[in-house]
Amino acid sequence: MTIRSVSQLIDQHNVSSVVLEIGDEYFVFSVEDLLRHLHAGGSSDATLAELTLRKMTCVFENERILTAFEILENNGDRYLGVVDSAESLVGILTDTDILSAVDPTVLVQKKTIGELVTRIEPVTFTADWILDDVLNHLQKMEDSIIVVEAKIPIGIITTKDIFKLISAADTTDRPLLEYMTSPVITTQVSSTIQDALAQLKTCHIKRSIVVNQENQLVGVVTQSELVGFAYGTWIDLIKHHAGELKELVAILDAKAKGFEKSSLTDPLTGLGNRRMLDKRLADEIGRMRRYDAPAFSLLLLDIDFFKHINDTHGHLIGDEILKAISLKLMSVVRCSDDAIRWGGEEFAILLPHTLLQDAVEFANRLRTTIEDHSFVEQIQVTISIGVGQFSITEHESQFLDRVDKALYLAKHQGRNRVVADTSSGPTQHLVMPI
């Protein structure tokens, strides 16, 4: 069969993959394989025999569900074959099946989807973008392109939509407006995990598009992230058992630690993320108040004219610059410091036991280091930095607001400079650019 014929078959049966039986082995052709083939310049008229298909891992039908989940996680596969004692295929197991088996009452019902939402900005474009120009953002089953207008999601294009285009022999040279599904099914940031699970099951979708009260896009929580969270919450229940369940507890503990580390790390740069900064700020503020410890300072920094870099050189080059700057930050901070990707092209550095003047000196050295560095394709990059020292009498949000305003002033006054908020008086411009 040709890839187009398979796509038509998949579309007719409203599924996302097909299984091929070759001898006594089973292989899968899925949306990921289709996208990988198309991104490599392949034709939709090619046959399955011309592709390198993935062999499907199989388990016996009496295997424990936790073992099956571990195999899916470790192999990075989305499909697990289930065979009987004669090793004949009797079913397919996916994340969707695991999610359907989760009883929402097991979850912490007070926990909201906003606490799980990914802090990395989801892939968004305006409706006038051409689909062919953004297809590279669809690589995996749960990937999607969110179409926004004034930060409000007005449409979505998923990998399943691409299957339909291929099966219909349609082109991809028109604006996103002509392909997107609208309106978008959204989840309020205040919704509970239980509500989000119910929505995924009822609407047969693979992601929660999370919005705030103004219906502006906040982030995306995928089906697999919810599955991972669900398994993490089972740990407390299973710990009530002993003996034969000891091995399962160890597996789940390791899984939970992996999820925790993932939730505190920015996947592009390897730095900590906004959640990590919130956690570390709470630690430092608690240390000061409990032990009357020395104050700490915070740097908020922003890459100057980063949008121009993306527009001129492309987002891939922009990502390389983000990673290069992250390496620079990690190379100059102390072991006790924390380098954070605040979001987009903004970063934060938390400096424990550091007073304002020392933090300003460090910020200016960092600014000079970035300015003198030769980045990819000889692109010159500068940064603007806001600096502040925490006062024991203020709230965390007030402190962040002060430092953020100092950063804004640094950019407003011409960029490539450091501005410090003295906290005892008006914001002062302490360091001028060279």
From TrEMBL:
Keyword ATP-binding attributed: no
Entry keyword annotation includes Nucleotidyltransferase: yes
Alphabetical keyword list: CBS domain, Nucleotidyltransferase, Transferase
Signal sequence extent: none
Reaction(s) this enzyme catalyzes, per UniProt: 2 GTP = 3',3'-c-di-GMP + 2 diphosphate
Spans through the membrane: none
E.C. designation(s): 2.7.7.65
Superkingdom, taxonomy of origin: Bacteria
Coiled coil: none
Domain called GGDEF: residue spans: 294-423
Domain CBS: residue ranges: 52-112, 180-237
Gene Ontology terms for molecular function: diguanylate cyclase activity
Pfam hit, one: CBS
NCBIfam families reported for this sequence: GGDEF
PANTHER family named in the record: DIGUANYLATE CYCLASE DGCM-RELATED, REGULATORY COMPONENTS OF SENSORY TRANSDUCTION SYSTEM
Protein name (Swiss-Prot/TrEMBL): diguanylate cyclase
Provenance organism: Methylomonas defluvii
